[in-house]
Amino acid sequence: MAMTLRLDPAETEALRRRAEIEHCSMQDVARQAVRDYIERTPRDDLINAVMDSELPRYAEALEHLGR
Predict the structure, then answer these.
(1) 8 Å CB contact between 15 and 29
(2) For the chain, which residues make up each domain, given as ranges?
């Protein structure tokens, strides 16, 4: 699926330089960045969800351990 990505001039230049350094296209660099973000984000969300649900459950025990 095609899409349009609008970047400001500084972002465009940084992307261009990165693509040049890596000897690939700006599109390849942007697609890899999106893949990295998608891969990383679910883990962060899962950790936050577990912490939100489990910390209250063990709050009393954690408080006693902290003494």
Answers:
(1) yes
(2) 16-65
Look up residue 62 and give its amino acid. L
Contact 19, 26 (CB under 8 A): yes
pTM listed for this prediction: 0.61
> Shortest CA distance to 27 belongs to which of 5, 49, 60, 1?
5
**Buried residues in 4-35 as b, exposed as e (16+ CB within 10 A):** eeeeeeeeeeebeebbeeeeeebeebbeeeee
> pLDDT tens across 10-57, in order?
999 999 999 999 999 999 999 999 999 888 877 888 888 888 888 888
